Amino acid sequence: IKECLGKGLWGKSFSVSDPDGVMAVLKVPLTSVDFPNDLPISESVDELCNACIAETASVLADGYGPRLLDAIELDDGRLALLFPRYKTLQDLLDGQISLLDNFKLVSTVCDTIEQEGGSHGNLRPSNIFIDDAGNIYLADRLTLSSKTEYTTLARQAAWHSPLVPPEAGPAHDGFDAWSICLLLYLGINSDNP
After folding, report:
1. How many CB atoms sit inside 10 A of residue 11's CB?
2. Residue 58 contacts by C-beta under 8 Å, 6 or more apart in sequence?
3. Is-contact 184 103, C-beta < 8 A?
4. For residue 169, what pLDDT band results from cuts at 50, 70 and 90?
5. Which of helix, strand or coil describes residue 89?
6. CB–CB of 105/113 below 8 Å?
7. Is 126 within 8 Å of 112 (Cβ atoms)?
8. Are 95 and 193 in contact (CB under 8 A)?
9. pLDDT above 60: residue 193
10. 14 falls in which pLDDT band (50, 70, 90)?
11. CB 60 within 8 A of CB 129
């Protein structure tokens, strides 16, 4: 394991490499220690995050989203997912992406959401993967478990819609609209020409 790449709604991603130096990303479920101490969480949050990762593995096995290299059982019984290392929209926003290219990319993201069922629920720059051929993959789409307990998971995440109510409840399509607007805003306000 090289470094922690970030924390999302239900998992943390780490940069890893094999003995030949080939880079990949290992996603492990969050546990209760990953949530802020002042956030009221259920005692079953560990099981919830593990259920989210198992549901994601099932969806990816059906061919939706980014390519899954492997699903690995960790020593403590939790499931982890191994992905190829993709470029992300966040990488592009941190580097060089023109305003026009950002608009095109966000338009493609909207098309992909529609093609994959109409709602993503967890859209953010680090969940938009781009392969070497320029194909777009949306990672960490909400699963049944994460939709049901969305507010519990979202309140601990750095990137979440202000539409998330303070009380527990399910996700809704307004979260995607907020995220798409923010992606456009970030492209407009980047330091890139």
Report:
1. 24
2. none
3. yes
4. low
5. helix
6. no
7. no
8. no
9. no
10. very high
11. no
